[in-house]
Amino acid sequence: MNKRTIVALMCAIATFICYIDRVNISVAIIPMAEEFRWSGTTKGFVLSSFFIGYMLAMLPTGWLANKFGGRVLMGVALVGWSLFTVLTPIAAGISLTALIMTRILMGAGEAASFPAVYNLLARWFPKAERSRAAAMNLTGISLGTIFALSTSGWLVTHYGWHSVFYAFGALGLAFSLVWFWLVRARPSAHPHITEEERALLASLDVDIGTTPALVPWKHLFSHSAVWALVVNHFCANWTLYLMLSWLPSYFRDVQHMSIEGSGLFSILPWVSQFVVGNASAHVADNMIARAGALRMSARSCNARGWAAAPCSCCSRLRRRRRALPFSPCVARLASGHCAGRALRATISTLLRVMPTSSGASATPQAPCRGSSGSLRRAFCWT
Fold first, then answer.
1. Local confidence band at 289 (pLDDT 50, 70, 90 cut-offs)
2. Which residues of 104-122 are buried (b: 16+ CB within 10 A; e: fewer)?
3. Which of 84, 160, 271, 341 has the fewest Cβ atoms nearer than 10 Å?
4. Of 287, 342, 289, 334, which is closest to residue 314 (Cα–Cα)?
């Protein structure tokens, strides 16, 4: 196995661990709320506190990835968020405020995961291989979610809710050692890479963050395409984290399932997303391969996804309540099919045009009509 494949695999495992630590509280919060007598509003504060740190740390961790490299940033982040995962039961026993602060800090740690991963992929993979590397990493999201939801209920039932955080946090701490052992920031820093692979990746082996590229912020924030992406991503994440955070509680409180059953039943949307999203990835690649098809791919995939998902949910509301557990699966199947293709298309393109440290684009840009120079460099994708 070549070294860049190992890097992609390690990134996927890191993303897997990121999501099992993020998702486990969705099941564990059911007995936690019963033990601490939390209302639904309090549960919402606890579940959402993670994203405060995640949101605030996004841009700073992107800057840190360019300055220190993906290897160091991901390794430190792994240790950080895994430590706060282990500390979650202890903080919950102290006070609600301590728990919320712990979750905020954990979110700040996990915010570094994707900037670190994409920093590494841009320096380890030629243009022709980056789509597959990015797709492998994204697989860790669905697999991590499925694993966390399917095992958290079993751990809670047999060993108590504390065990979920201790077990998953310890796994992350152990993996951080493997990460630092196997991963290097760039090919030239790897002591065991073959000369053939080193020569293949020589053009990518540039210093990290020496001369940062200028970002046309004014043009970006005044362009309708940017705000379309912002709204699209907002809606996608609303659906994503609504189900991710509340689906186990729904099965427990409304469908009256056991804690273990609530976790197991909650994996259905993510199984459908994993299967359909990966199966349709090649369709998006084929559309991108055709000249000018990236815009068509993103628009058509997202439009069909957002039209199909609510319709599938509403149709189920007219039937018996026992049919309701299947509506999230159907909704995620629809949105996962289309949004998953669009997400892979966007990430693939971003990796292809990601600026190098000298400020030059990784690939030549095609002419774009009706754009200024800075905006053309930002939006005209080949």
1. low
2. bbbbbbbbbbbbbbbbbbb
3. 160
4. 334
